[in-house]
Amino acid sequence: MTNNNKQQASFIKSRKHAPQSPAMRPAPALALTMLATLVMPAAHAAPDNIIDQSIPTVQVSGASAPVGPVSNNDKFTAPLLDTPKSVTVVTADTIAQTGAVSLTDALRTVPGITIGAGEGGNPVGDNLFIRGYNAQTDTYIDGIRDAGSQSREIFNLEQVEVVKGPNSAYGGRSSAGGGVNLVSKSAQAYDFNQASVGIGSDKYKRITGDVNRNIGSNSAFRLNVMAHENDVAGRKVVGGNRWGVAPTVTFGLTGPDRAIISLYHLTSHEIPDTGIPFNNPITSGKDLPKNGNGTPFAVDRETFYGLANRDFRDTRSDVGTIDLRHEFSSTPGHSLALRNVTRYGKSNNDYVWTQPDDSKGNTVLYGTVWRRANTRATETRTFANVTSLSGELSTFGLQHTFNAGVEFDRETTDRGSYVFTPGTNNPLTNTFTCPTSGAATLYNCTTLVNPNPYDPWVYSRTLSGALTHVNTRTKAVYAFDTIEINPQWLLNLGVRWDDFQTTLDTLPTATTAAVRARVDTDFVSSQAGLVYKPSKNGSIYLSWASSATPPGNDGGDGLDGLTVAVQNLQPQRSRNIELGTKWDLLPGGRLSVTGALFKSTMNNARVTAPDGTTQNVGRKEVQGVELGFSGKLSTAWTVFGGYTWLDAEVADNGYANTGTTANPVWSPSPFNGNRFPTTPKNSASLWTSYAFTKAFTAGFGVSAMSKVYANVNNNKWVPGYARFDAMASYALNQDISLQLNLQNLTDKLYFDKVSSPHYAGVAPGRSATLTANFKF
């Protein structure tokens, strides 16, 4: 692939969310109505060879597939084969074959990623951990940060790109683990209609539509719609529905001037899961005989501790994007293009869900559970504008492929919580302790075994007066350059300067005072990599990168919240060094394999200092091995997967109070040397499919990981697991195919969300879905 082709391939396709309009307000019926437009005949049908009939997909492409995986992030100034960084691309084919219907489903195929559970300041939503570090705020849509706690859908995605390692040079404030970039569907140059209708176990129903129309000699319109409903296999009460619509129009498909206008809307209603509490370990005292082993209690998988008439979660996401591009020249080796992207978005996350709280010892002492009500009513509004200049040029005999730009971003979050009348305490004790359960406790206490989610809990709910407003502003300048010294040696450089300001204001109430905290800091993040190419189809690289995480990194809607105690601290800084190799193998380079050794260190982690204050004096270390593969072993046999080994150590966890509250004694933390929470030492995944005939394809997958700790104490944990999935598809003709997916074939009981020290999230049990895919 020439550099010019690479440059065009990396032009970020824009997505998504629309500012709300009245047409968006009717719920799933709207998506079904829009789907009816798919029966309209296409004026210019796509060529038959665009889609492999033996493997139903959700993606249509007007061009032949390039060699190896391709990123749509234009900050990568070289093909992925020559980019000195670990990047995993989950393609539309893999998403479709595995039956994924959410971002967390799609990421199940990527080892090294774990999913955290909501708790306390950690809201319900996509809560990702990459290489051991929390990456909750490191999700991007077409290269621009997607703020606000959400549970993201896949109906409008072409692919998902996971960048491993420090990500600040690309995205600004971020974790040391990496980031996830979602690549949106965009309008194509020819007409097509696609639709899918699925049914399955546990009340599964899903319908999607994808229509593309050429609306002129150089413009096109595309519309994606979705309606979905299902319960969670093996979990009582849990489930919900959602619907979405995403139109996009492109003017100037062939350039040199291009404008992409896109909208996106997603609404969801659900009863969120509560998980199962940990069997608390007790290390001393009179209750030692009741000591638990630290794993979740061995109760029935369907056990649900929530309240069906209290718990809910309503979310909404609306975003509009205008993406403008002008090519000054497109001569191979001497191209230049200017791009400006403006995006406005608004997301809402509104919920009450029951955490089966074990903090008062109820589970171990009394065999009861306090139904702690975790609540949130949040609205996050974002405005971002990015202007970049990219291209290729030669200077002093060296070939440069570059991208430089400026970025302005503003995020505003308004956050509140609910209060209940009567309250959620046990009225018999006026506390959270539950020696008994049932009606006398107003059903705020329930039994550990066989709780009734339909207990007649009666309440009135109002929004608390303790409202929090967070305003975050970022200004940034960045530049990336891949320098071709000669055909065998490349030098990749990147630098970014961020000016980060965030303020938090909490309104006073009758019992609490107003709170104000502010962070005003700037930081530089950089990366450098040397690439050696022993042949055109392979590379060996050595790279270094840094990352910065300032206080208030989450913009007021996550775990890394701004407080008075941390407002004067420096950004946490991480360094990563990586030695890796990438190869495109077999004829045509149809199989890509990667491998990397890396070490990441955070030397100024925020921990408790010897005087009891929070300071940047801790240290975390992660070293590991990562292997990946994707592509085709033959024209009929596809594979995708990898393996990750992580040795993640809390090298210095600061100090702990070994005295009393009145007379504290600060001693080195007893948890120094423990493993990171939410980080398995070993994780692996494999998805493979084989087209036995042009019409029939079968696939099989496995995802596995070793034990995971839920706390830095390393005394609460979930065991490792291996999960198996299968798929079979059959094309009735070139326009209709059927696909059967069986998830969790062995009905394995395992826990897939572990970050709270109080409970672990239960993974879905065995389920089956049958989907009919249509082309018109």
From TrEMBL:
<keyword id="KW-1134">Transmembrane beta strand</keyword>
<dbReference type="InterPro" id="IPR010917">
    <property type="entry name" value="TonB_rcpt_CS"/>
</dbReference>
<keyword id="KW-0410">Iron transport</keyword>
<dbReference type="Pfam" id="PF07715">
    <property type="entry name" value="Plug"/>
</dbReference>
<keyword id="KW-0798">TonB box</keyword>
<protein>
    <submittedName>
        <fullName>TonB-dependent siderophore receptor</fullName>
    </submittedName>
</protein>
<dbReference type="InterPro" id="IPR012910">
    <property type="entry name" value="Plug_dom"/>
</dbReference>
<comment type="similarity">
    <text>Belongs to the TonB-dependent receptor family.</text>
</comment>
<keyword id="KW-0675">Receptor</keyword>
<feature type="domain" description="TonB-dependent receptor-like beta-barrel">
    <location>
        <begin position="286"/>
        <end position="745"/>
    </location>
</feature>
<feature type="domain" description="TonB-dependent receptor plug">
    <location>
        <begin position="80"/>
        <end position="178"/>
    </location>
</feature>
<keyword id="KW-0406">Ion transport</keyword>
<keyword id="KW-0813">Transport</keyword>
<dbReference type="InterPro" id="IPR010105">
    <property type="entry name" value="TonB_sidphr_rcpt"/>
</dbReference>
<keyword id="KW-0472">Membrane</keyword>
<feature type="short sequence motif" description="TonB C-terminal box">
    <location>
        <begin position="759"/>
        <end position="776"/>
    </location>
</feature>
<keyword id="KW-0812">Transmembrane</keyword>
<feature type="region of interest" description="Disordered">
    <location>
        <begin position="1"/>
        <end position="24"/>
    </location>
</feature>
<feature type="compositionally biased region" description="Polar residues">
    <location>
        <begin position="1"/>
        <end position="11"/>
    </location>
</feature>
<keyword id="KW-0998">Cell outer membrane</keyword>
<keyword id="KW-0408">Iron</keyword>
<keyword id="KW-0732">Signal</keyword>
<dbReference type="InterPro" id="IPR000531">
    <property type="entry name" value="Beta-barrel_TonB"/>
</dbReference>
<dbReference type="InterPro" id="IPR037066">
    <property type="entry name" value="Plug_dom_sf"/>
</dbReference>
<dbReference type="InterPro" id="IPR036942">
    <property type="entry name" value="Beta-barrel_TonB_sf"/>
</dbReference>
<dbReference type="Pfam" id="PF00593">
    <property type="entry name" value="TonB_dep_Rec_b-barrel"/>
</dbReference>
<feature type="signal peptide">
    <location>
        <begin position="1"/>
        <end position="45"/>
    </location>
</feature>
<dbReference type="InterPro" id="IPR039426">
    <property type="entry name" value="TonB-dep_rcpt-like"/>
</dbReference>
